[in-house]
């Protein structure tokens, strides 16, 4: 009987917001419970498509947040209706399934800006964790398995006791820290484009940037002379997905750009991976900003060591679309 009551409560409360559709998914005034970003992006796309008729897409993980549709729209042909189709801890599998979905369902895909990072490229299958499992409406995998994952996590993951206590008694959300389900920061989402603005962090940086980076504590000193390289990441499984993405682009007549984004650690993508991407998508469409360069050497371009600010992505857009030479960033 208690189990049945918990299941009924779960269905009514929908704590992960994966059962029902919502106009808004985030509380922008404070930190709140984790949500699967892939699910949010997918539901916003599907529910808003009839109104906005999206035809241009930024794809990537949360590292793509610095690229906003507002800025990107300045560089792609008009008219366009862009959407930021990202996912937290995105995978190559996730980007591939999104492109496949758009192409198979004859959804317009005039332009694509694909933001790749080393962690993303390494993952070629659906993930099983709460924040990485893909929405089956796009991935094509089991809806039952997807919903069961969230329900079982609620029931068995040491989750429901503190959650219900918090909801019932307004207990400090800090009680959730030990299971890692509260977002560390709050941010603003544009629900028409799905762009994310790091509201809280940018406010702190504007008020006292030096204090912000000291408190962040993650920007350790690094060797800015001797560049390190990632191991080879693109292997047989990656090649297969990348070729499928290219085939979908060709079928849909998509104009695309592939971007290897820089992280603060300044590690360079392996030359063979860069060459594979050029061979598949064309040299003119692949841009490697990884390694040590003007952006990665300076913490002021970052929210944290993995996530760039808009000022960094705007510099890259100027290079990608030919307004400045890449040597400016090197």
Describe, in plain words, how this protein is organized in 3D.
The protein has 13 helices and 9 strands. With 330 residues, the chain is α/β, with parallel strands linked by helices. The chain has one domain (2-328). The strands form 3 sheets. A 5-stranded parallel sheet has the order 2-1-3-6-7. It has a two-stranded antiparallel ribbon with strand order 4-5.
Offer a concise description of the structure.
With 330 residues, the protein is α/β, with parallel strands linked by helices. The chain has one domain (2-328). Helix content is 41%, strand content 11%.
Features:
two-stranded antiparallel sheet, 13 helices, alpha/beta, 41% helix, five-stranded parallel beta sheet, 330 residues
Strand and helix layout:
Blueprint lengths: L1 H12 L23 H16 L3 E5 L8 H4 L9 E5 L5 H13 L6 E6 L1 H5 L13 H4 L3 H14 L3 H10 L18 E3 L4 E3 L1 H9 L1 H8 L19 H17 L2 E6 L10 H11 L4 E3 L13 E3 L2 E2 L1 H11 L10
Helix pairs in contact: 4-11, 9-10, 11-12
For the largest beta-sheet, the strand count, sense and barrel status come to: 5 strands, parallel
The arrangement of helices and strands along the chain is HHEHEHEHHHHEEHHHEHEEEH
What is the tally of beta strands? 9
Q: Can you count the helices? A: 13
Radius of gyration over all CA atoms, rounded: 20 Å
Provide the β-strand percentage band.
Answer: 5-15%
Side-by-side strand order of the widest sheet:
2-1-3-6-7
């Amino acid at each position: 009987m208690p189990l049945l009551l918990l299941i009924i409560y779960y269905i009514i409360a929908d704590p992960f917001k994966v059962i029902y559709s919502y106009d808004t998914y985030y509380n922008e005034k404070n930190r709140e419970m984790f949500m699967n970003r892939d699910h949010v992006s997918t539901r916003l796309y599907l529910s808003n498509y009839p109104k906005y008729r999206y035809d241009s897409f930024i794809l990537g993980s949360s590292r793509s947040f610095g690229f906003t549709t507002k800025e990107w729209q300045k560089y792609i042909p008009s008219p366009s209706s862009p959407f930021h189709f990202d996912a937290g801890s995105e995978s190559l599998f996730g980007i591939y399934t999104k492109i496949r979905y758009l192409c198979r369902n004859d959804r317009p895909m005039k332009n694509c800006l694909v933001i790749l990072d080393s962690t993303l490229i390494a993952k070629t299958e659906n993930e099983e964790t709460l924040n990485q499992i893909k929405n089956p409406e796009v991935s094509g995998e089991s809806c039952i398995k997807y919903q069961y994952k969230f329900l079982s996590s609620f029931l068995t993951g040491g989750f429901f006791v503190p959650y219900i206590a918090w909801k019932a008694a307004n207990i400090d959300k800090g009680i959730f820290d030990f299971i890692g389900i509260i977002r560390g920061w709050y941010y603003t989402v544009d629900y028409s484009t799905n762009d994310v603005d790091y509201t809280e962090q940018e406010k702190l940086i504007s008020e006292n940037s030096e204090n912000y980076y000291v408190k962040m504590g993650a920007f350790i000193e690094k060797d800015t002379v001797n560049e390190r390289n990632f191991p080879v990441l693109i292997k047989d499984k990656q090649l297969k997905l990348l070729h499928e993405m290219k085939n979908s682009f060709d079928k849909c007549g998509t104009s695309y750009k592939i971007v290897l984004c820089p992280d603060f650690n300044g590690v360079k993508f392996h030359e063979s991976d860069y060459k594979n991407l050029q061979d598949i998508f064309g040299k003119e469409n692949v841009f490697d900003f990884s390694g040590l360069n003007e952006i990665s050497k300076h913490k002021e371009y970052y929210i944290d060591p993995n996530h760039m600010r808009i000022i960094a992505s705007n510099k890259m857009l100027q290079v990608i679309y030919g307004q400045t030479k890449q040597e400016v960033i090197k």
